[in-house]
Every structure is written in C-alpha cells, then in structure tokens.
Amino acid sequence: MIAPALSQQHDLELRFLAASTRDLLLTGVRVVRNGGLSAANRDSVTTSLAVGLGRLYELALGLGDLTRYGRWTAPYPDAADGDRADLMTMHDAVFDFLSLAPHGQTAERLLSRVTTDPVVPRLITALNAYWDCEQVGPAGARSVTRAWTGVEDACEQDPADYELSLLGGPGGEPAEYLAWRRSVRTSRNAFRDGSSQRLSSTVEAIWFALGVCGRDGAFGQPGEVFAAEVLPPVPARLTSAAA
Q: Residue ranges per domain, the chain?
C-alpha cells in the first residue's frame, strides 16, 4: 500500500532510502557491539555510522517538509558536497521539529535520552569529518586519518555530566529498545573501548528516536512507512521479555 500524500515513485524511493539507511546503521553497530572494531576498519565502520546518521537526518527533514508544506524533498546521494548540510545543522533541525511534533511516551523518553546527553552534540560534530569525506568520495579518505581522535575526545565525559544508565535507569527504557540491544551480542572485549561503545549507543538512541517518532505520527502517515523500513528487526520473543 502506498503511503498517503506520496506518489508511487516517492513511496518506493522512501522505502528504498530508509531500508538502505537501516542497513548502514545496522552493519556499523553490529561490528562495534561484536568487538570487531580495530585500527584497520575503524574509519570505514565509523564512516558507515556517520553516513547512516546523515541519511537518517535527510529523510527526517524531507518528511518534515512533507508534513508542514505538503512537499516531499528526497535526499540526493550524488549531490555535490556544497549542496548538503553538515550533521550538526541537520541534527538540530530534526530535533527542533520533533520537539513540537506529536509523539507518544516511548518516543518522548527516547527524545529526552538524546537531547539531555551532553556527549551527543560533541559526537555529532566529530562525526561530521566522516560525513564530509563520504561526500567527496575516495579523494577525501586520507583526511579522516585523525578523525577518530575527535570521536574519542567527544566521547570522554565527566561522570557527573551524565548517568550512564540509559533513559533514566531501570524501568525507563522502552521494551523495543531493550530488546534490540539484547539481540545484538556485545563481546566483553568491546567494553574495554569506552569510546566505541559510547559511539554505538548514541547512534542507536538517535536511530530509535527518529524511527519511533515516525511510527507515532510525527511525520504523518508516511512516517509509518519510514519507521517500518528504518527500524531494525527485533525478535518478538526478545520484545516480550523486555516488556
């Protein structure tokens, strides 16, 4: 069924872009949580996460325009570097829109998790180096050689700044979010690298916040299509166990 307010072409485009964005984020998060991040693949994995976030923001902004102005503005992966906004600009625009959009209690907890975490703006700013390099293609690959240091610096935090227990502690986490985290095995070695785990948990929180907001009606009925494609699959048995 085609999402209302979208032509058949735009409906197919939305589904394809949302699914490909999900796959980028899914691949990057799983590598990190499985303890597979290394000096050899660190930049490519982090690029996948940064590009996944950038495309997630682009889709959300396009759906926001559709909701407010009745005009679908799809992202263009082959756009020139100068034609695409930086990650932090898009992040702020998306969360400003969502703060005023209708959404349920689960989405509200996820939004709060993102907007109250002081690491988020620092990390999104650091990831912009990877987003920029993806825009210019292979020629920009060399410029990310020191970008991981920026990610590590962004992830360092004063323990008094932020409670590490997600979403306010036990019982505050949405069941679906907990189930997803259980479904992605995290190796003991992965916990030794706090920066990589902080990176993956922050990306997950933003990813789920946008997906659940879409499902709750923040982007109108097309947002339900977006949510169905962009959120990762979670086994039903894990969702029930986390509830």
A: 8-242
Query: What would the pLDDT profile of 103-133 be if each residue is shown by its tens digit?
Result: 888 889 899 989 999 899 999 999 999 998 7
Tokens 């293609």 belong to residue: 137
| Verdict on whether the full-model pTM lies above 0.85 | no
72 in the Ramachandran plot: left (φ > 0), alpha (ψ -120 to 50) or beta?
Answer: beta
Cα–Cα–Cα angle for 80, 28, 170, nearest 5°? 125
Query: Cα separation of 36 and 32, whole Å?
Result: 6
Distance CA 189, CA 11 (A): 42
Residue 221 CB partners (closer than 8 Å, separation 6+): 3, 4, 5
213: its two tokens: 């907001």
Find the DSSP H helices in 40-86: 42-69
Res. 178 pLDDT band, cuts 50 70 90 = low
Interatomic CA distance for residues 203 and 75, integer angstroms = 20
Collapsed DSSP state (helix, strand, coil) of residue 48 = helix
What pLDDT does residue 180 have?
A: 58
Q: How many CB atoms lie within 10 A of CB 110?
A: 28
Location of structure tokens 């703006």: 121
- Residue 122: which H helix or E strand, with range? helix 119-136
The burial of 23, by beta-carbon neighbours within 10 Å (0-12 exposed, 13-18 middle, 19 or more buried), is given as: middle
Q: How many CB atoms lie within 10 A of CB 85?
A: 15
The dihedral over CA atoms of 165, 159, 123, 103, expressed in degrees to the nearest 10, equals: 40
